[in-house]
Specification:
This protein is α/β, with parallel strands linked by helices. The chain has a single domain (5-282), classed as 3-Layer(aba) Sandwich (Rossmann fold). 31% of the residues lie in helices and 19% in strands.
C-alpha cells in the first residue's frame, strides 16, 4: 500500500514553484495504492517550510459537503503559506467523494493518509510524533470522527494517539442522529450517508462515538454564528470533556462559514495564530 521511498525522493527533485509565496510543495503524493482506487482520489500536496528537519505536520481535510472540492480548490489561499512560515509541514489531502463513494469511504481515506505520512514522515522532514489534523466543514467532521472512532486507524495498526491535536472548523454534522430526530436527515446529507439507517447515522456521528477508553487527542472546535453549528460544536466538546478528554468549543466572530476557511492565515487574521498556539501546546518534546 505504501509508495517506495525512491518515488517520494524523486518528487523532491521536482518541487513545484506553483505554491503560495514562501512555500515549496510536493504535488500529488499518492498515499494509498490499494487495488481499485483511482489515484486521483488519494493524492496529497505537501507544503514544506524552509529546511524542514523534524517539523510538525498538519493534515488538512477540505470541505465541500463530502461531494465536491479537492486539495487545492478547498483551501484558502493563505493557509499553506501561513502554516509553513510557522515551521509546520502542511499537507492538503484529497479523498474519495460521494455519491460515488458514500460513507465511510472518506473516513477510510483520512486514516490511510495519516498512516502514510506517519510512516514516511522522515522522508519529508516531518516529525511523526507531532502530527495534527485540521478540517473545515465536511473536512472538520472527517477529522473529528477519525480522531474519535479508533476503528479507522486500527486498520493500519495505529491508534488515535498518533494524532496530537485536532482543529475542526465549523461543522454541523457531529451528531447526525440528533439532526435526523424527526425521522430523516436533510437531503443535503443523503448523497454521503445513504438511506435512513440510524445505525449509519450514529456510526458517522463523532459525538456518539466518544468513549472514555479511547486515547482521544485534544480538540479545538471553532464555529461561527450560524444555525446548528454552535450547538453541535458545544455538544461535542461537552461529550469529550465529560469522558475525560480535552476539548474547547470557541466562537469565531466576524466570520461566516466560508470566510473562516478562505481568510485563514491572511494578514491580520487572528484565527490561524490561535490554531498554531493550540498545536504548539500539544507538541511532544
Amino acid at each position: 500500500m505504501r509508495l517506495f521511498s525512491v518515488i517520494l525522493l524523486a518528487l523532491f527533485a521536482s518541487l513545484s514553484t506553483a505554491a503560495p509565496a514562501n512555500a515549496k510543495v510536493i504535488r500529488d503524493v499518492i498515499y494509498n495504492d490499494a487495488p481499485g482506487l483511482d489515484p486521483g482520489d488519494v493524492r496529497a500536496d505537501v507544503y514544506l517550510p524552509e529546511n524542514p528537519d523534524g517539523a510538525p505536520m498538519i493534515l488538512m481535510m477540505h470541505g465541500g459537503a463530502w461531494t465536491f472540492g479537492n486539495k487545492q480548490s478547498g483551501l484558502g489561499m493563505f493557509q499553506a503559506r501561513y502554516f509553513t512560515s510557522e515551521g509546520f509541514i502542511f499537507i492538503s489531502v484529497n479523498y474519495r467523494l460521494a455519491p460515488a463513494n458514500p460513507f465511510p469511504a472518506q473516513q477510510e481515506d483520512v486514516a490511510a493518509a495519516i498512516a502514510y505520512f506517519h510512516e514516511h514522515a522522515d522522508e519529508i522532514g516531518g516529525d511523526r510524533n507531532n502530527m495534527f489534523l485540521m478540517g473545515h466543514s465536511a473536512g472538520a467532521h472527517m477529522a473529528a470522527l477519525t480522531a474519535i472512532d479508533p476503528d479507522y486507524l486500527d486498520e493500519h495498526d495505529l491508534t488515535p494517539s498518533v494524532i496530537k491535536g485536532v482543529v475542526a472548523m465549523d461543522s454541523a454534522a457531529y451528531n447526525l442522529v440528533r439532526t435526523g430526530s424527526d425521522g430523516d436527515i436533510p437531503d443535503f446529507y443523503h448523497p454521503t450517508f445513504t438511506g435512513d439507517d440510524q445505525d449509519v447515522w450514529a456510526a458517522a456521528s463523532p459525538t456518539l462515538q466518544v468513549e472514555e477508553t479511547t486515547d482521544i487527542p485534544p480538540f479545538l472546535l471553532l464555529y461561527v454564528n450560524r444555525a446548528v453549528s454552535p450547538s453541535r460544536a458545544k455538544e461535542l466538546a461537552e461529550a469529550l470533556n465529560s469522558a475525560g478528554h480535552k476539548a474547547e468549543a470557541r466562537l469565531v466572530k466576524k466570520r461566516d462559514h466560508k470566510s473562516l476557511n478562505d481568510r485563514l492565515g491572511e494578514k491580520g487574521d487572528k484565527v490561524a495564530p490561535m490554531i498554531v498556539d493550540f498545536f504548539r501546546d500539544q507538541m511532544s518534546d
